[in-house]
Amino acid sequence: MALQNIGASNRNDAFYRYKMPKMVTKTEGKGNGIKTNIVNNVDIAKALARPASYTTKYFGCELGAQSKFDEKTGTSLVNGAHSTSKLASLLEAFIKRYVQCYGCGNPETEIVITKSQMVNLKCAACGFVSECDMRDKLTTFILKNPPEAKKVGKDKKAMRRAEKERVKEGEAADEAMKRLKKKDGCSKVSKKDASDEEVSPKHDGSADDDDDDDDDDGIQWQTDTSREAAEKRMKELSAATAEMVMISLDEEEEKKSLGHEMREYLKKGLPISELKAFISSLSEPPQEVMDALFSALFDGVGKDFLKEAMKKKDYLAAATQEEGSQMHLLNSFGSFCGKSGNGEAVKEAAQVLKALYDEDVVEEEFVLEWYQKGLAGADKSSPVWKSVKPFVVWLQSAESESEGEA
């Protein structure tokens, strides 16, 4: 049976793990009784974890034709003669609307009907709840024919675990693309020249004494030379000088800090392949180095955390080549999401974590270990753990199912 990737956006990904059979159709009858039989609709629906009646009804709704699915024989018929390419195109639209998660694009979703009679998709990977368009005719059919709770089949279990490792040829091709994308350098930060302003005195030495006697409080305009006044001026001068010195020291310290050094390195636009060597050259502890890198890459990122993570995933992959580095990355990820003010970022934490897992930046065993340590640690009340829990549960379920099959 010929297979293809689920979802048009994944069509050319040779390593995509979710597959479905290619559609096979057959035209039957003649004249007004002509019909199109989707021969393998049951197998397709099974791969999508949707009732075959849903896809059949969707074809009929979109084509404006009568459709029928026979539960006993598994026959899917749509009135009229329709090409395989046309039906396949409609199937892709069905997958986008009723199968793939609107958040992460994963096809492993479950249809949920709410108390208010809304049709939603709940993602088993990232936990995102997608709201289907209730204006679509198929939603009425789904409300009248809700899906039955089904156990995950062996084929679905296998899809979770399949194709995790990338082949060497694919890695080599990816590395070549990375080098092509990172040829343009970033502009250097310009330094502003500091200039001292000279304050011109308001009075010169030739001023008349009569002009100095006009203060209402009786204090003369001339400088008070008493001991008390002199001590007061010295204290004010010392405080101002100390503040200037502290500002200068803070600026110098910032220039010497690991975070500043990491930001400056990234601004140079050097090939990502050199990042590993740069990290190895730093003397700070590995966790501090990873924290600095993560902060430099995602400083100020909130709502578009997933988008930015996908843009910069190659940096994270390059930084996780050494033993223990994946756990360091996960710790930095958790710290970043747990910071106050990163409320928008933590909402996308599960999606980002799943994306890093799909890209083989972090592996399952480290994610599970990191999560368990987090729940048992001092920051167990952090919203990060609640956000990533659906993805972790999904990983644990896949692991237990795989062990049961062995």
Automatic annotation (TrEMBL):
Region span, Disordered: 150-220
Organism domain of life: Eukaryota
Nucleotide-binding keyword on record: yes
Biased composition (Acidic residues): 207-218
SMART domains: eIF2B_5 (SM00653), eIF5C (SM00515)
Stored InterPro entries: ARM-type_fold, IF2/IF5, Transl_init_fac_IF2/IF5_dom, Transl_init_fac_IF2/IF5_N, Transl_init_fac_IF2/IF5_Zn-bd, W2_domain
Name of this chain's protein: W2 domain-containing protein
CDD domains listed in its UniProt record: W2_eIF5 (cd11561)
